[in-house]
Amino acid sequence: SSQRHGYCTLGEAFNRLDFSSAILDSRRFNYVVRLLELIAKSQLTSLSGIAQKNYMNILEKVVQKVLEDQQNIRLIRELLQTLYTSLCTLVQRVGKSVLVGNINMWVHRMESILHWQQQLNNIQITRPAFKGTTLTDLPLCLQLNIMQRLSDGRDLVSLGQVAPDLQVLSEDRLLWKKLCQYHFTDRQIRKRLILSDKGQLDWKKMYFKLIRCYPRKEQYGDTLQLCRHCHILSWKGTDHPCTANNPETCSTSLSPQEFINLFRF
Fold it and tell me: Where in the cell is it found (predicted)?
């Protein structure tokens, strides 16, 4: 189902909301992955056995989608590493009693994670066979405009490694300045000023220093939302039979962290 109300636990909500279908929607994919990452960091032990199994099933579907599409590879590598690190801590340091199920089952799941990581590492990105217009064929102003739509500095760096001309554009100071201003407040930026050898602000170095100190701004094409009147969780754009006089004013978009916070008592 795409909407439910009356959840008591995070695991219950995780089981009943349709995340398996959501990962097939490009607008929702990053949202679900971020949610999986947050659960991996601190909420695994709050999930029931069924919810933990469902978590692993959804994770496997995410990995298979990335292997087929060859997109979001770094994002899923980071998710798998976060999960594996958490499981190592739970199994070795804290003790097996905090995880629901047989310890051998969790060892098998950890082996699956290592296998998925290896599969992702073995991906060879193939160049499309067609000979059409490429990014470097576009006017420089359009190339820069496209680059400005990238919200992760690491993507800019990767793009700059594709061709010498893109390398030059990826070092554009205004590009990195806008990226810093998008993710961070003026106060945060003022605390992390870095000057280049020419005496100018080095926005690229500042960006990578800032992301080590402060969380980046999160953006999603689609989010879960909570109807404050009906207490129903649903995906944005999904209608539910709200009884309020003005249903559109009752819905609040939830970030992945805010979704998890609903179940902290």
Answer: Cytoplasm; Nucleus
Q: pLDDT tens across 22-49, in order?
A: 999 999 999 999 999 999 998 888 888 8
CA atoms within 13 A of residue 121's CA, in its CB half-sphere? 9
Of 5 and 23, the structure prediction assigns the larger pLDDT to: 23
Residue from 253, 259, 261, 258 nearest 237 by CA: 253
Give DSSP secondary structure letters for the chain: --EEE---SHHHHHHHS-HHHHTTSHHHHHHHHHHHHHHHHHTGGGS-HHHHHHHHHHHHHHHHHHHHH--SHHHHHHHHHHHHHHHHIIIIII-GGGSSS-HHHHHHHHHHHHHHHHHHHT--PPPPS-----GGGS-HHHHHHHHTT---HHHHHHHHTT-HHHHHHHT-HHHHHHHHHHHS-HHHHHTT--B-TTSSB-HHHHHHHHHHHSPPPP--SS-EEEETTTTEEEETT------SSSGGGTEEEE-HHHHHHTT--
Exposed/middle/buried for residue 11 (C-beta within 10 Å: 0-12, 13-18, 19+): buried
Closest CA to 76 of 89, 67, 85: 67
pLDDT-based confidence at 2, cuts 50/70/90? very low
Length of the chain: 265
Confidence of residue 174 (pLDDT cuts 50, 70, 90): very high
